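Deliverable D5.2: sample structural annotation.
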Amino acid sequence: MFLSVFDIFKIGIGPSSSHTMGPMVAAARFLDDLRGGVEKIPGSTRPYRLWASLHGSLAFTGKGHATDRAVILGLCGLRPDTMDPDRAEEIEAEVRRTGIVRPEGLGELRFDPAQDLIFDYGPALPGHPNGMVLKVFDPSGATYHQQTYYSVGGGFVVTKAELEASAAGIKPAAESAIRVPFPFATAEQMLHMGISSGQTIAQMKRANEEALLGDQLNDRLDSIWQAMDGCISRGLVQDGILPGGLKVRRRAKGINEQLERERGRNMNQPHQANDWLSVYAMAVNEENAAGGRVVTSPTNGAAGVVPAVGRYYLDHCVGAHREGIRDYLLVAAAIGGLIKHNASISGAEVGCQGEVGSASAMAAAGLCAVLGGTNAQIENAAEIALEHHLGMTCDPAAGLVQVPCIERNALGAIKAVSAASLALRGDGSHFLPLDNCIRVMRDTGRDMNEKYKETSQGGIAVNLPEC
């Protein structure tokens, strides 16, 4: 099993990796099918009008997650890693006004979001809670081509056929061709490979990545960190009300200013370490809620935890150095890959334990590694952090990634640092292995009532007067 660090950490836009980035990627993939000369359905002539339907969680919280905008932008040919978020509103307005999209290489296609973009509030599609169907019709109204996609969390998108093949244990040809020196699929395998090779988790993960990327790895890791750190810095200076109707005010700027003043007057309290962690995480998730550029870590809804703990390491930990951030990201991605492979990072599938819980486990492992932890201590740190997010629901108010998501990232970062510290105080031995904890998270998510899995039909979402 191999998931690259750049599969786990992807630069994109807010507010959601599964509800914004995923649908945009799916729409772009659909256009690629058309450009590639996909075999048309017999009896049709040429592409003329596009149509999309959103199902399950994509329908229930799609408005709050800007899923409609994501589909529109994707059908215009834009992609989350390269588009300019500042132009999104302008492009969306133009499509809604004209009912036309002009993706490169396909000419002019009809697409009126008011009629051709359907929020289906019936039962979810059978493959995954985040399902969508894309179709293109010819001028007579006959279906020219159609495809079902699932946005499975963290910006990952699969077709119906790909999902069914994965469930049957069939790997894609490209994945089957990947050969890495340390192909661990479980934490147990990872620890055994570390013992037999004498390598740290960071060294093994680096070797795997270099097998594919060679000497590009450090530059690409640095780019990911620059995007994370830049998101924190932007969030710390922005003010105002977040979009969506809840009238949630940005708080990171004000909290940061208070902390800077108190630091200048030597008024530091010991617990202010938690305040710094919180403000870094909140800065990222306020940017995400505003539709800004963020890095999936492993999702947008949990995008603040890993950057916050990384910034905390650099700015507050004794002996921290810039090169350490590379190992931090490598180890965090190794843990994120294990969780995604053996459970889920999708809030619509397993609740917020799969998003903020996974992010906290990743950050705890990464911090433990760069503070000198052994492989066993790193695995222990990840388990502690994940264990104490088990059962956490995903119940965003009004379907927006704001309440309780922003503060949950702050607390996820605090738990990550606590978990790393606890693990470093021990020798790595502990009662519940990380693999078992991941399994518990998966099973808990399967048993969780659907109204607590990113549908905004339970919990906090229905117990606020604003909703």
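Annotation notes: The domain at 17-167 is CATH 3.30.1330.90 (60s Ribosomal Protein L30; Chain: A;). The chain has a mean pLDDT of 95.
The annotation will be released with the project's public dataset once the embargo ends.
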